[in-house]
Amino acid sequence: MRYASIDIGTNTLRLLIAEPDGKGLKPVLYKRAITRLGGGYTEESGISDEAAKRTVTVLEDFRREIDSNGVTKVLAFATSVVRRAKNSAEFRREVLDKTGIEITVITGDEEARLSLLGVLSVLKDESPRKLVIDIGGGSTEFIFTDKNGVTGEWSMEMGVVHLTERHLKSDPPDTTEITALEDEIRSVIAALKSRASRAGVDLERYSGKDGAIFVGTAGTITTLAALDQDLAAYDRSRINNYVLKKDSIVRMYKGLLSMSIREREKVLSLEKGREDLIIPGSAITLLTMEAFAFPSLIVSDAGLLEGIILNEIIRPS
Fold first, then answer.
1. Which of 16, 79, 124, 257 could tie 305 with a disulfide, CB 3.0–4.6 Å?
2. Domain that includes residue 66, residue range
3. Span 63-76, mean pLDDT?
4. Does one domain contain both 226 and 174?
5. What is the percentage of the chain residues whose pLDDT exceeds 70?
6. For position 317, what pLDDT does the model report?
């Protein structure tokens, strides 16, 4: 079997074509493109026509890759913005009509579960107590694990696209904007802690002071890992299991805050289209580390894409 998984996110579209190899997955092809599907989103109108058009164009390219690589099964999953949009059905119908790709919309909890499955497939650190974070364009997933498996998972409506559009108006952003951005993020993390505590999660055990580890996946985290290593070209082998120190993230965050968009565009390891989004993404990362007293995090380039395929392989027929 050769599988294609597609992650239709609020900011990024990603395609993985892979085969089972006995130990996990053997990648055949990986592609990604920032289409910012959630750009210009409103509760009243949903996904904008321009964002939908950008996304369908990339999905047409993905369809060509799928057809030319002998894929047996296509699994296309959509997350936050497609979950919420009032015109979600219309968007999915347009994709099906133009590409033949049928999109499944998954809940935040399902997104968290599948992302964890992908993360654990490449993680070398076997510490049982982990807080795993998946920072997306429209939501952020927080997953708590121990030796018995998942102890709690929450999808919080806090994503880098919406935070950027809500708070970052100046270039570079001014102090008032950054304060408002960070205040909102702290508020969401406080709400997460409250929900987790009420559900019976012992938050003291998920502290860097008590031996828990912090694991991060998705674009913000992998971009920070690339920046920290000053990679001229993105190299997944140098991203997976890379340890990012909190001090390094603080340094990068401060440096990025002082730059204009144009200056950030010239930073070699910064993915085109992420020049503004890296600010709220870095803030989410840092403030989570602050809230749970983590001095570092382990980076995983694997996540939802891999989890989608692995879940299909292990699912009872």
1. 16
2. 3-108+308-314
3. 97
4. yes
5. 99
6. 58
Give yes or no: residues 129 and 104 share one domain.
Answer: no
Clarify whether residues 73 and 29 are in a common domain: yes
**3-class state of residue 304 by DSSP:** helix
Interval 244-277: pLDDT, tens: 999 999 999 999 999 999 999 888 678 888 899 9
Q: What's the token pair of residue 276? A: 């503004």
Same domain, 198 and 265: yes
Q: Report how many domains make up the chain.
A: 2
DSSP H/E element including 266? none
Comparison of pLDDT for 270 and 94, the residue scoring more = 94
Residue 11 CA: distances (Å) to CA of 58, 78, 115, 160, 232: 13, 11, 16, 8, 23
Strand order in the sheet with 213-217: 149-156, 140-146, 130-135, 213-217, 296-300, 243-245
Say yes or no: 149 and 266 in one domain: yes
* Omega prior to 172 cis, within 30 of 0: yes
Are 220 and 195 members of one domain? yes
Same domain as 57, residue 192: no
Same domain, 137 and 267: yes
Q: How far apart are CA 5 and CA 18, in angstroms?
A: 8
Domain membership of residue 259 (yes or no) is: yes
- Among residues of the chain, what percentage have pLDDT more than 90? 74
Sorted by sequence, the CB contacts under 8 Å of residue 309 that are 6+ apart come out as 3, 5, 16, 18, 25, 75
For residue 145, tell me if it sits in a domain. Answer: yes
Q: Residue 86: what pLDDT?
A: 95
Q: How confident is the model at residue 305 (pLDDT cuts 50, 70, 90)?
A: very high
Adjacent-strand bridge partners of 304: none
